[in-house]
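Lecture 7 notes: from sequence to structure.

We start with a single chain of 159 residues. Read the sequence below before looking at the structure.
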Amino acid sequence: MTGRKKKRLAIVLLGLTALGAATAMVLAAFRDNLVFFHSPSELAARPSLADSRIRIGGLVETHSLVHEDGRRVTFRVTDGKTDINVSYDGILPDLFREGQGVVAEGRVKGGVFIASTILAKHDEKYMPPEVAAALKKSGHWQNGGDASELAGPPPAHYR
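Now the structure, written as tokens:
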């Protein structure tokens, strides 16, 4: 192999190595952000999540919704094992109800999740697999059906 070919090979290998390292760093940075939401149990088990902007998901606990002054509302989100108080200042989606699925985006401050965005469940046939399993296990399963009927990949409008 000539000196020129060795140089070219070294440059190609160096470029591929740099590309691989950059890809690994990007994937590591996005690892926690690829999760659609965290359950209240995951949030309780990982206090480090409280320092960042996250999404939590679960069911709005029955009889927990309180309308305060103006547009401010408070409620609890549960996964059947753990619940968390949520405070939101804004207009709730039309599909938001107690006992229904919800995803809230925001930060934890002082043990309360301060939501900046509330997303209500749009499809009655869908529930995240981990929430469905936790509800069935805790006895909070409302439909009387098998959790596998509702668990599955998110509908296209959630992607």
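The helical segments are 3-30, 40-45, 129-138, 147-150. Keep this in mind for problem set 3.
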